[in-house]
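Memo to structure team: turn this sequence into structure tokens by end of day. - J.P.
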Amino acid sequence: MTGIDRHWRHVLLTGVLCSLWGCGGNPVDAPDDPPVPVAVHEEPDSAGEADSADPTEAVISGFRFHVPSGWRRTELTPAQQGFIDARFEIPASGDDVKLTLSTIGGGVQANIERWQGQFRMAPGVSPASETVDVDGITVTLVDLRGEFQGMNQAAQPGWRMLGAAFEGQPRDFYIKLTGPESEIASLHDQFREFVTTARRTER
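Reply from structure team:
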């Protein structure tokens, strides 16, 4: 074989190898470098944290709340997921007392009327409400008493609901505390503080 033939054979072999494995770098089939991990801050699950003597904080649906001592955030049941954002229990007040937070549409007035429709009030008793400013947001506070008929729940005489409706876009934000009237009465001030000291995490 002449020198010229050897030269062209070398060129041909080099071309074949390059087409199979690539030339001058990593092999063609080598995976890309894995992405650099990015630190992600995840809010700790606050379920059970409120058992400590000191109040805690909870971030829910864009709001930061000061959680009173004795309030315990609990996991949502499968039936509640997608309907409410978070819920709290207050063990010292009994199993019937529940606090829920949710983000829904429909308008504040329509939802407050729906709350009122869940109560059969005694003659002469009317819903109590007031409007307050919470971190620049108009919030309607509602106080309802009477026989409560919640969704999928038997009628409960002598119950009370404290509610807060935050006006927002595109959806409003709601907080409800329900339970026997005697227990809710003892939680009135804590509920009001929980609502009125809420602060938005973003503007």
